[in-house]
Amino acid sequence: MARTVNLRALGKPGPNVVEFFSSIELITLLADPDWLEDAAKTIGQYRKRKNAQRHGSTTEERADAAHLRQMAQNCSELIMYFS
Q1: What is the pLDDT of residue 13?
Q2: Residue 76: which of 34, 30, 32 has the closest Cα?
């Protein structure tokens, strides 16, 4: 999610670790309607792929869904936390 909506983590976190973000940057992004629209689209894509996975899908779609799931989860948590 962070890569999809131009959200940068603090430091250089490795793969599959908890990422931390600057609260000042998040507050600024949450005030930007264009950024929120991009974040909402990413979450919508994740949900669409997850539903497709439940009803049968290809291996490639499952891999994409796993990646989007992690990104969408991070974004949703951030939006809820700072709203």
Answers
A1: 80
A2: 30
